[in-house]
Write the structure tokens for this entry.
Amino acid sequence: MTLSPPYVFGTKITGRGHRIKGVPCQDAYASELVIPSQLVIAIADGLGSAPRSDLGAHCAVESAVNAVTSLMAEGLTDSNLLLREGIVNARKALFEKAALEICPVRELACTMLLIIASIDRIAVAHIGDGAVVIKGSGIVRILSEPHNSEYVNVVVPLTSDDWEEALRIYSSIEPIECIAAFTDGLQNAALLKVNNTYKPFEAFFNPLFSYAMKIEDIDAAENDIKDLLISEKVQGSSDDDMTLVISVLNTNIVTENV
Amino acid sequence: MVENRKIDQLNEGMRFLKEEILKDELASSRVDIAVITFGDQAVKAVHPFTSIQDFQPPSLIANGDTPMGEAILQAIDLIEMRKKIYRDHGVNYYRPWIFMITDGEPTDMKKGDQKWLMVKDTIADCEKNGKLLFFSVGVEPANMDLLNDIMPPSRGPIKLRQGNFREMFQWLSNSQEKIVKSDIGPGEMVKLEAPTGWGEIPAK
């Protein structure tokens, strides 16, 4: 029997380059279902130049999700405010962690994608690369694209003094079926860049979302996603860590794209 | 003018560079290279930008004058043209490097003249605005004082230890491999190995 939405599943894998060098996966994600039907999801990608960014990424996603869900429990409903508080708390947690670990906060540097979603709306706060692609009203589109930096290896992290200028918040009120959020390791496989604009690669997302809406078991689905990420084709696109988190909000909208 | 033995070592070094970068799967798919020569009163793009797989290391010949100023300006133009091609085709790219190797001193400009100041300012602007990174290597008997003057404030020239071309190209290859695997914050630099194995950084 297929699962009833809302549900979230995902996986992360260590990039080839990191496996060779014995570097741990520097991606992290966390999610929480807020009764009755809101999802809070955070994904972080630790910077390769930051020696303890795996620790930073874990700390950031846990803090962001905890902050948002706690404020929701207190009755706060404004998505933009919730997201901002989630980001501020994640940043604060990184500085506290750095003090505890006695290391400069830049050693914990990571990106951040924070999402609040329900059946009829989505809001995203984004610092750095990675992206959020949604299927809403039957159409697959990118909601938050990787940061706009001239060089592909330069990214403004959550720990930066310039984080406020780098923070982008997007929201949309529309029927939401599926959401895919992922780190930059998956960008080459999942996005096309045409005239300096990113577009979702439909051959990647249409079957992915179609599959996600019919799953029967979260563990089995996470294994399937892992198989996708370690497939030769996807691995050939990047040797970076990869995280893919998929959320399903509504499976009742039938469209020609499925 | 570079002596024949040195130019042979330089040519061998470029072939070695290709071999080394090709050993790294990721770097071999991401490093593009072009070669400009400056000698005999002419600046020549002897190899256009290509992928490292398609790079045909040229056999250079030592001759003539050293129109270094013009060569630097042409290299900067070539990079900007290449960037535009990347942007037009949706290709992500890294901050480019200019890696200048010389055993002479410029013959198309003199320290302090109009062209000298223009070239120096152009390099400094490019560095300051993050457009590229400019490295220079002086091979004996290069005029290191002049190289030092034209370099950006943040980076001096490197003097090649005699005959250490191969080690220099090994460093260049290692550095490119590091860069294509890096994630850095704005204004940060990828941490490179010190060039101590093949070069000396003269005191300013």
Observations:
- Residues 8 and 247 of chain A are 4 Å apart (CA to CA).
- DSSP finds eight helices and twelve strands in chain A.
- Chain A has a mean pLDDT of 93.
